[in-house]
Amino acid sequence: MYQAQKVNIPPPQQPQQMRMNTIDGGLNVKYNELQISPNQSPYMLNLCADDRGALTKRPGQEVVHTFASGPIHALYNGLYKGVVVAAHGTSLSTWDPETDIETEIMSGLADQDGHFSTFSDKLLYQNGAQYIQFDGVTASHCKDSAYKPILLTGRAPSGGGTAYQEFNLLTGWFEVWFTSRSDSTAVEYVLPLDNLDPDTVMIEVVGAATPIEGTDFSVNRTTGKVTFNIAPVGTVDTNDVKISAKATQAGFVDKVLKHTMSELYGGATNDSRMFIAGGEGNLYRWSGLTGDPQKDFKYFPENSYNRIGSDYEPITGFKKQYGMLDIFKDSSIFNINYQYDAATGKSTFPVKSMNAQTGCNMPGSIQIVQDAPVFCHTRDGVNTIQSTVLENEKNVKPLSANVDGASFRPGLLDEPKENLAKASSVNFGGKYWLCVGSKVWVWDYKLQGYGPGMADDMLKWFYYENINAACFAIIDRELYYGDRETGNLVKFIPNYNDFGQPINGVWRSKVFNFDLAEWEKTVSKIWFETRAGTNTTFDIKFITDNDTQIDSELIKTKSYSYKGYSYADYTYAVYTFAVTIMKEPKLNKIIRFQIEFSNNELNNNLSLMSLVIKYSLDGETR
Length: 622
What we know:
The chain is elongated, with a radius of gyration of 33 Å. It is mostly beta strands and about 625 residues long.
């Protein structure tokens, strides 16, 4: 009797799920779209992650003040005596945020980038051409009130004496203290410098009337000799005749004014000196001590300088780290330490090489992040110093590999070289911001910081546009910037618009083949979770091997917010939890799948918390 042969028919394929509980991995253009992690994006725009990892649009922007001229070259980081201080165009100005009053405090400055710093209670500004001090009321050139050094003490009328201080590069004025009792009958006093300026020579005779040039003494400015009518005698045994004169040395003042960067440093606990560089190649200088902090920053001794590394490469940046001062050049990094010799009473600043292969050629990129310098080079991107204990070519670690760019996937290092050279940066809110032109790359180290041995592609970077920041400032815990082209002072605000215009937010997933490149699939459903804050519309693209399918979803979150307030959207109903949305793309016989969410509507958020893709296998490809 015939019996039918049994055939084992396999059960139909059960649907499977690709589940991404967070999608906060940031931008990754290092690898192709198939190779990146599921929580990363090959293209995302104007999105950041909150503290719990949910994606949301970055803060909006508004102009809070427009200075009379632009561009803005520098902002003081904070309020100085209650006001914002900005260098803009050819002016220095203050702006009072309480009264909205702008006051020009100095004009006629070089129209170029500059740098603010503070010393004692003074605000200082350098731009490579001028060196300005501001006390909250009056701004003036430091060279006009520079410290007058005492070159010699205990000098006999005919010469000699003990060296006390060096000549000040910022001024031709100097002082010499003579002891008249070494030759009580002498009327001719010889200064250590000749070719004196025509400025009036001033003399103090301790305990006696003040002598007047032309009346009580004459000056031979060619030889530097002062001749008294009557031999002067003071009431103290030594240093009783103090002569002040001026002998300008060609080019000396420019040796200070031409520098564009500065950092306060004096060891681990005392920022007693100002280090300057940027105008004399690989040479840096530091200020001296006068005994008065109100004068120290206006005293640059003639011989307080050092050259570091190759003459070919200029110094590009300073940054203080703990008790050291790091010095950056194009292809090397050094640090300076402070040492004090009690026997001689002198301070020294020995130099140590930290890395002879990597450096920084983007001065505006240098910040301290997680207690370590972070900096960028146009060749190898953003880096950090892992250890400062020993010189080691492995002590510099890359941070920005995910966003540097690769073939056919442009990134940070593909920006124009002139824009990279003028990059600005800030460390704010657990994020390192690097602005190149009007584009910003943000490393969220609060979400994922760097640690020794960590793969750099684990770091979370985000990408923003329409931020034209020449310089940043943190004022009352809020972030501001000065515009590169105009006099606009811009503030980031908790709203989803840029100057009243929509912010375009985009997040695109990686390309999924679900680890089965040889199988055709059906993507039947997707779920995504959102908490947008206001009613919003998501534009959704389903991208496959075959075509692109476009969808749209109006999401009524009922999560009321004053951000973008509108009576049309107002509701007393509030969803305490996020909203889960399901879509049915029903994409059949596909091998690869990608999804993109976007929103470019005024005051609307693009919030993404999680994503689930439901798919099934159709059969092997032929």
